[in-house]
Amino acid sequence: MFQDIQPHVLKNQNDQQRAPRSGDYILIGRQQQVLLMNGTLPKYEDIDADYAFSPDQYQYLLAVDQAAFFWVDVDAVANDNYTVGTTRGFRDLTPAWLAFSSATAAHLAWWYDTKRFCGHCGQPLHPGATERSLVCAACGQTIYPTIMPAIIVGVTNGDKILMTKFLSGYNHFSLISGYTEIGETFEDTVRREVFEEVGLEVHNIRYFGSQPWAPSHSLLAGYFADLNENVAIELETDELSKAKWFQRDQIPHNDTNTSLTWTMIEAFRHHQEK
């Protein structure tokens, strides 16, 4: 999956004393717009005179092996050496470890970018000294990175799995998914989302795996669940355009192995669901 970057190691410790050096990657931009050099993130040694940043402009994000990732909080403006891209394109970077680490770094940069002021008193927030946080010096409010829990569920009925299509956006078949609401366990979310989206009830809910998914600032938990009763689907048409049962040998193919969704689908196809 996307996060499987072995033998490389992601280091998410809050190393705010780390200064940028040769070999480090720099995210330059705001609001998910970033500068790219030859289609990828520029390295520290590539920063030219047009972008002569002071040391305190580099916000440490994370590291992979010995290479750190930093964010510079300025507008992304193209020149002869740089183009402007979006952080959503990071999932397509190569090699795979760079795609995952760049997307994760962008998740943190987005958090710093969108959490500038205290929601309680309105005063500026500043990076915490010892942990990954933003602290208000005026009222003491402490803010931690935004990570939104969500579930993906493969609803099964014997040798069939239920697949859905969104009304807009992603145009391929996928699995039922949704964010966890206040006061819910993941299993509660599975039951609620299945009933809300297709009007079905499930049992034998069992955990499959998890995935940090930086593009939506989420932590995904994957489950399989068995259909309670073979009744008609009642499609929730505000979000979905289609829901269909597929036999294992009829499941559509997809050319990605990065997502938890398609890892689960392939597991079911090959009788490897838990």
Automatic annotation (TrEMBL):
Its EC number is 3.6.1.22. PROSITE patterns: NUDIX, NUDIX_BOX. It comes from the Bacteria. InterPro entries: NudC-like_C, NUDIX_hydrolase-like_dom_sf, NUDIX_hydrolase_CS, NUDIX_hydrolase_dom, Znr_NADH_PPase. Keywords: Hydrolase, Magnesium, Metal-binding, NAD. CDD domains: NUDIX_NADH_pyrophosphatase_Nudt13. Gene3D superfamilies: 3.90.79.20, Nucleoside Triphosphate Pyrophosphohydrolase. Pfam families: NUDIX (PF00293), Zn_ribbon_NUD (PF09297). One of its GO terms (molecular function) is metal ion binding. Its cofactor is Mg(2+). This is NAD(+) diphosphatase. The gene is nudC.
